[in-house]
Structure formats: C-alpha cells, structure tokens
Amino acid sequence: MSSESSYQRIYRVVQRIPRGRVATYGQVAGLAGLPGHARQVGYALHATPDDLDLPWHRVINARGEISRRHDAEFENIQAQLLDAEGVEPGASGRIDLKRFQWQPRR
DNA sequence: TTTATGGCTGTCA
DNA sequence: ATGACAGCCATAA
Fold this sequence. Notes:
Helix 2 packs across helix 3. The chain has a two-stranded parallel ribbon with strand order 1-2. It has five helices and two strands; from the N terminus they run H-E-H-H-E-H-H. By secondary structure, it is mostly helical. It binds a DNA duplex through helix 2, helix 3 and strand 2.
C-alpha cells in the first residue's frame, strides 16, 4: 500500500462516498492523505480511467456547486446524477453542504 | 530543464 | 453576497 499512488488513494476515497451524498475536493484530498491538494484531486478525477466506477459526479467544490468544466454538458450530467441521488440544489442553485456533504466517520 | 495553467481553498476587502 | 490574492503541486508544452 505504501507504493500506491496518490491517485489510488483519491479513487478509494471517492468510491467510498455513499449515494445521496457529496464531498468537496478539499475533503477528498484530506481523506486521501493529501491535505491542501484539492486541486490535484480534480486533476486526478479528470484522469480517472473509466474502468473504475468512480462517482466523480459526487465530488464538488467547496461552494457546494459544480465547477465550470470545459464542457457545459458534463456539468448538466453531474447535476442530473446528483439530482437522481436525491441531492438537489437550494434556492440559490447551490447544494446545501451542511446537509449533503459526506460525513465520514473517523 | 523551466514556465504556465489549472474540475480548488481559504482569507481579506 | 461577490471579487481579488496567495498557496499547493501535477500535468502539459
């Protein structure tokens, strides 16, 4: 396990996210053992092989919203997936992190 | 090798 | 609430 890449840790954390819950990049980074590398988490997700069922759509930014990607359609897909899991944005169009943010135990 | 950018975050105005 | 600044480090050129 010591030779596992940071990506592997990130993937593992993301796969750990339960359905109907979301996590922020910084949170995933911290859980993956990479505190402060929130950005890299985003890159790791972008480089995620589709071989893994990585629920990247459950990972959002600290604002509780979907980050602006180069493809606006993907943003829509992510929003739909979250909505399908019961995660709906508030009146401001943002997800209530206080309510939907994944709270891992220990 | 260096430089620039980026699916971010947190703080300050 | 929004906007600007700085810091972290991997990937691309």
